[in-house]
Amino acid sequence: MRAILHVDMDAFYASVEQRDRPELRGRPVIVGGHPRRGVVLAASYEVRPFGVRSAIPMARALVLAPAAVVVPPRFAAYAEASEQVFSILERYTPLIEPLSLDEAFLDVTASQGLFGAPAEIARRLRQEIAAEVRLPASAGIASCKFVAKIASDLAKPDGQREVLPEETRAFLAPLPVSRLWGVGPKLEARLHALGLRKVADLAARDAGWLTARLGDLGTHLAALARGDDDRPVVPDRGSKSIGAEDTFEEDVADPALLRPRLHAQALRVARRLRRAALRTRVVQLKLKLDDFTLQTRRCTLERPTDDGQEIYRAALELLDRAPPPRAVRLTGVSAQELDQAADAQLALFGEQAPRSEALNRALDAIASRFGQGAVAPADVLSFESDDPLDEVRARAGASRLDVPD
User: Fold this and answer.
1) Domains detected in the chain
2) Which residues are catalytic?
3) 91-113 residue pLDDT tens
4) Does the reported pTM lie above 0.85?
């Protein structure tokens, strides 16, 4: 029987802010952008009783919770915390399917001989995340992905819940049909009109009855209602691209001011490539203009790389080749057409590895011990020195690679 974990960080962005700024602990915190055009990116558990949730407009959130503390997002700090969390997950299994920066599925079926029962593995990794990253995480344990995801949701905050195979149908039965994957407001209303309000209602219906009214979707929902979900955990090693992007709170009109942002993003992409033992052949630059027009440009490198400076130079060349015609609200750098590092073509005539590889190994070792912000290029640091929050972030130990948004 498979053993699947769903690990989910609790109010991830808000928890990072409360960790890095002690004065925010225990207070209602909203991580969000511009009050007129932004949305809530994260809401601490202290602000949720007021009705504030992720993805609602910032303007509405401030009406619901006028006394909440609003902080701008620091995506590089969240990426750094995410890298630390995933490093801990990798201690227990290579079968990790990331869903976002703050959640993932793990298949620990083959890990039980080394680390114990699935519930013990979940307890250990949550304990290590709390001790090393100083953030809370919740976990769901089940024999399939769908049930593990629901279990982790119900275990929040800072808890875990295991659903044994023989308990699956009883666990799902009382839940509303909206808990099923793919059931949004419109489909939920349609199911209610058919008298299907609980998961148990779907599980009890004849397959022919459901197919006649809902087509293939009915068969799919009935299978989920019974806890039938045989989809495997798909590791990230098969990624087709790795990227980093940030939306700015204020549009940037001067292309020169985009350079340190692109530099920071290229470094983040390179770190992720090295962690996954991958190299890229193609660098892509993404720009979203102030009128929401999306522009993408790409170039092919002479040989695969995992070096942030090479990726940055490629992105900068793409930017300089065709400067944006309007102010920019978002930039992104991504690595495309990825190869395993071990499969990269060897240099001709026995050339030695570039000095950048030794430098990157040293930088990675420093970052592993002292944090990603211990060393950073001068342009990124000088860019951040203009940020009024920089001193506060430095005192809190936040990443110096952070890009204000």
Assistant:
1) 1-163 (3.30.70.270), 169-225 (1.10.150.20), 239-360 (3.30.1490.100)
2) 103
3) 999 999 988 889 999 999 999 99
4) no
